[in-house]
Design goal:
Length: 163
């Protein structure tokens, strides 16, 4: 099975590296983005992001806006990783559809445990592969096959198909 892809979005390169190092040790593939606009571009160009770890305070587009944009089209699990730890900030995150909220400073081992817990909950509840007739729909890989041939769909087309 391919490694699950996790998008780590933070404007601090050392924070991205720290998170990446711990996730790679657990056999995840990590894709990095340094701002919200880059995160949106990466998310919609790659069709198989399994989870997003998202900072709130970033240049160009903050984490709240990134979450809003993604939630219009996807239920991909999102973990907010931020220095904004007030109750109101956490509640706003959950209102926007965030799955987990981790305040900085944090334990990287606990973050990885939360990533694994969120992925366990979200992948087991959806069912990974659906077969109907000659059509195979893989929700984790965001891939569709007809009679074994991969069909290239845009992100939005895939989301509509799985609706």
């Amino acid at each position: 099975m391919d490694k699950l892809k996790i998008l780590v979005v933070d404007d601090e390169s050392r924070m991205r590296k720290l998170v990446k190092d711990f996730l790679v040790r657990k056999n995840y593939e990590v894709i990095e983005a340094e701002n919200g606009e880059q995160a949106i571009d990466i998310f919609f160009s790659k069709k198989d992001i399994a989870l997003i770890i998202l900072d709130v305070m970033m240049p160009k587009m903050d984490g709240w806006q990134v979450c809003r944009e993604i939630r219009q089209f996807s239920e991909v699990p999102i973990i907010m990783l931020t220095a904004k730890g007030s109750e109101n900030d956490e509640l706003m995150g959950f209102d926007l559809g965030v799955d987990e909220y981790v305040s900085k400073p944090f334990s990287p081992k606990i973050l990885v445990a939360r990533v694994e817990a969120v992925l366990r909950r979200t992948t087991s509840s959806e069912g990974e592969v659906i077969n109907v007739g000659g059509i195979e729909l893989d929700k984790t890989a965001h891939q569709v096959k007809i009679d074994g041939t991969v069909v290239d769909l845009s992100f939005k087309e895939f989301e509509l198909l799985t609706y």
